[in-house]
Design a protein that fits this description.
The complex is a heterotrimer. Chain A is of the alpha/beta class. Chain A is 43% helix and 29% strand. Chain A has a 6-stranded mixed sheet, sandwiched between helices. A 3-stranded parallel sheet of chain A has the order 5-1-6. In chain A, strands 2-3-4 form a 3-stranded antiparallel sheet. In chain A, a hairpin with a 2-residue loop joins strand 3 (41-44) and strand 4. The longest helix of chain A has 19 residues, at 216-234. The N and C termini of chain A lie far apart (70 Å). The mean pLDDT of chain A is 87. Chain B is mainly α. Helix content of chain B is 80%, strand content 0%. In chain C, helix 3 (97-108) crosses helix 4 (113-126) and helix 4 packs across helix 5. The chains are: A alpha/beta, B mainly alpha, C alpha/beta. Chains in contact: A-B, B-C. At the A-B interface, strand 2, strand 3, helix 4 and helix 7 of A face helix 1, helix 4 and helix 8 of B.
Chain lengths: 252, 223, 255
């Protein structure tokens, strides 16, 4: 009797390993994003879409990966990266010296600038200096918060952090302006039709890329991503995705 | 600039949100089941004053009642994998259920303990007099009677738990609150989106309140 | 069969039992009388460790427990050797009469369900409650509840049944039916230790009467000895008062 049971168990184990074989064919890469960043990653009528989404679908295709999008509030994304719940973040993460100390980045795929956005019709704010004494909104944990704080050495700007809804508050007058990247800001104004305007020229260039943990397994994924990005750049796919979502090619 | 209420948008959004209601309810129901089991253990351990265990139970209850649920969820999901790498495999949905269970079990344990202590001492004495152990007495006589007393309070915690699942969106769980937030972010109709999700919570909880009322009537019919 | 050695019980500074010693033989019916608050109930409750003695050794049917070294397992063993009838019946509120009686057989003695329920039904028949077996305690009168309590004690496979003022909480109309059941048990030579104020019952049924006061056994003997020829002064006083009371009650009942 015991012999028979052993045999049955062995057979089941063998069977299950054969059945699950197809799953081993493709590696799954977990990509974190906020789903909250028009037009890079957002959800409309329950469909996740955007620049980053299209980008990664293409990367996955070229690298033979199975991509799984994991959503979280922006401020939670780095926590998830650290904890190992995701392999990388595709949410317009800017390369900063501080982040470089901790993570390894893919090659930058969006070149952008830091932009001030105010309520339409407002003429008193066009440069960073004009922000002194004003209330300025930034996304919690973003590099924009960092940038603003590093510029505001005398702490003359009232910086308010948000997880979402910062554009709305500028319209409502709860804050005077918000800081974000130029490309995202332009897209947001266009899509939302909110009475906002780009105030002045962008200050500070930013390069956005994907962060990975500095571990051998993760670096392998990073390298494959870079290879895919390069091939997408060379055959014009990268530019195409950029124009589709952002109205212009901001990838060089 | 005043924005008029877009009722059409709410009507279109409701079915999308309702699709994810099952996630919310799954978290609440599973969370509640585990919470009850844990709560009974904690309560019995404390009432019977089991050595060592009773102190562990006290510390557990103190911590989970004394820190915000949000903090507990973050510790579980973001913090724990750093010290115990096996936890990296735990997904947000599971982490949320674990967090909800641990958090509410602390409160529920106190309700159950109060209910047990409210049962007349003579019931336990009668059990002991025929040779039952205290654990047997708990299982056969005391807990069934305490369950009646504790039911209103436990149902209240269940309702609380349904609402608390909304915090799971901070872990990235795709439940109704997360969906509402994301749709709001892309459509900029914040008021409409959150009103829609509020209506759903309200309807579900009203349903369970009625159920609770019915349960209480049934349980109040004396033995 | 029962040996009590040097049993003492203190509550804070109050010594309720003062080094009690006594024995009970198999089949013996012992009635304990005495003024209220004198430790009679406490003595009974120490016999099955519902109260933990401050010192002393209890032995029932071969199970010997020293209060200073008593373990939980020992206490549970000791409790299985006796069963208890409470002044306030203490029936399991969430169980029917039948389930109450069967509970010990099911949970403690692990008997199969159908056998246990059958046995319980038989016992309830003996105490005259066949029609009430599926009623809950809340649906029964005081007298009926106490008869269920006695049935539960009868079913519990104890060598001795301990009665703690079984009729003191009953309306007068129910007292007789309960005493009748106890008299039945006496006829069957069930070992019993009964704490009661029912002097008439004690006279009729007891093999031995123990008079306690102030935490001590003052005097013990046959009912005849105690009620008709008490030796100690205190015994004389108590018996005189107690009998006068029951005579008065008898008088009023006859009017």
């Amino acid at each position: 009797m015991k012999q028979q049971i052993k045999f049955i168990i062995a057979a089941l184990v063998a069977l299950s390993s054969v059945i699950s074989l197809p799953a081993f064919a493709k590696q799954t890469v977990n990509v974190g994003m906020s789903g909250n960043y028009v037009p890079f990653t957002f959800s409309e009528k329950d469909v996740l879409q955007g620049f980053e989404v299209d980008l990664w679908k293409e990367i996955a295709l070229r690298s033979d990966y199975e991509v799984k999008f994991v959503l979280s509030t922006f401020s939670g994304l780095f926590g998830m990266l650290e904890a190992g719940h995701i392999d990388t973040i595709a949410n317009q993460i800017t390369i900063t010296p501080a982040r470089l100390e901790r993570y390894v980045f893919s090659n930058p795929y969006v070149i952008d600038g830091v932009q001030i956005v105010t309520k339409k019709g407002r003429e008193d704010i066009t440069t960073v200096d004009d922000l002194k004494g004003k209330k300025v909104a930034v996304n919690l944990g973003s590099n924009f918060e960092e940038i603003l704080r590093s510029i505001d050495t005398k702490k003359e700007i009232n910086i308010i952090t948000y997880d979402s809804g910062f554009a709305q508050d500028v319209v409502l007058g709860r804050t005077d302006a918000f800081i974000m990247d130029r490309v995202g800001s332009a897209a947001l104004i266009k899509k939302s039709k909110l009475p906002l305007q780009l105030a002045g020229q962008p200050f500070e260039k930013i390069e956005n890329a994907m962060p990975f943990l500095n571990k051998p397994k993760q670096i392998i994924i990073r390298d494959k991503v870079n290879a895919a990005l390069l091939s997408m750049k060379n055959d014009g796919t990268l530019a195409k995705i950029s124009v589709k979502w952002l109205g212009a090619d901001v990838t060089q | 600039m005043q924005m008029p209420l877009d009722v059409q948008y709410i009507i279109e959004l409701l079915p999308i949100l309702l699709k994810y209601l099952s996630v919310t309810m799954e978290m609440a129901i599973l969370g509640f089941c585990f919470a009850i089991i844990l709560a009974v253990i904690l309560a019995v351990v404390r009432v019977l004053k089991l050595p060592l265990l009773r102190h562990l139970a006290s510390v557990f209850i103190s911590f989970f009642r004394g820190t915000p649920l949000l903090v507990q969820l973050f510790l579980l999901y973001y913090g724990l994998p750093q010290v115990l790498p096996i936890f990296a495999g735990v997904d947000a949905f599971t982490a949320a259920i674990i967090g909800l269970s641990l958090h509410f079990s602390a409160y529920m344990a106190e309700s159950i303990r109060a209910a047990i202590m409210g049962i007349d001492k003579s019931q336990m004495e009668a059990c002991l007099s025929i040779g039952m152990t205290r654990l047997q007495a708990m299982r056969r006589i005391i807990l069934p009677q305490a369950a009646r007393v504790a039911t209103p309070s436990l149902m209240n915690y269940f309702i609380d738990m349904i609402k608390s699942t909304s915090l799971a969106f901070t872990l990235g769980v795709a439940e109704i609150m997360a969906k509402a937030q994301m749709e709001a972010s892309s459509s900029f109709k914040y008021f409409e989106s959150f009103l829609a999700v509020a209506l759903i919570y309200w309807a579900v909880i009203e349903l369970f309140s009625r159920l609770q009322h019915y349960l209480e009537i049934r349980m109040n019919r004396a033995y | 069969m029962i040996k009590v050695q040097n049993l003492s019980k203190k509550f804070a500074d109050n010594t309720v039992l003062n080094g009690i010693n006594f024995d009970v033989a198999h089949g013996e019916i012992v009635v304990i009388i005495g003024p209220s608050g004198t430790g009679k109930s406490t003595l009974l409750r120490c016999l099955n460790f519902l109260e933990t003695p401050s010192s002393g050794v209890i032995e029932i049917a071969g199970v010997r427990v020293d209060s200073e070294t008593a373990t939980a397992a020992q206490i549970t063993s000791l409790r299985k050797k006796s069963s208890f009838v409470f002044q306030n019946y203490s029936l399991f509120a969430n169980k029917t009469a039948l389930q109450n009686v069967a509970e010990s057989l099911l949970t403690v003695w692990k008997e199969p369900k159908s056998a246990a329920l059958k046995h319980a039904e038989t016992i309830l028949q003996q105490v005259g409650l066949s029609e009430k077996i599926h009623q809950y305690p809340s649906q029964l009168s005081g007298g009926q509840q106490q008869r269920v309590g006695i049935a539960r004690a009868m079913a519990a496979k104890g060598e001795v049944i301990l009665f703690d003022e079984p009729t003191s909480s009953l309306d007068p109309e129910w007292v007789d039916e309960v005493l009748a059941v106890m008299k039945q048990l006496a006829v069957q030579k069930q070992t019993m230790i009964i704490v009661t104020h029912e002097m008439q019952f004690a006279r009729e049924v007891a093999n031995r009467v123990i008079f306690m006061e102030g935490g001590n056994i003052v005097e013990q003997g046959t009912p005849q000895q105690i009620f008709e020829h008490p030796q100690q002064q205190r015994t004389k006083e108590f018996v005189a008062r107690a009998t006068k009371q029951s005579l008065t009650a008898l008088d009023s009942a006859m009017l």
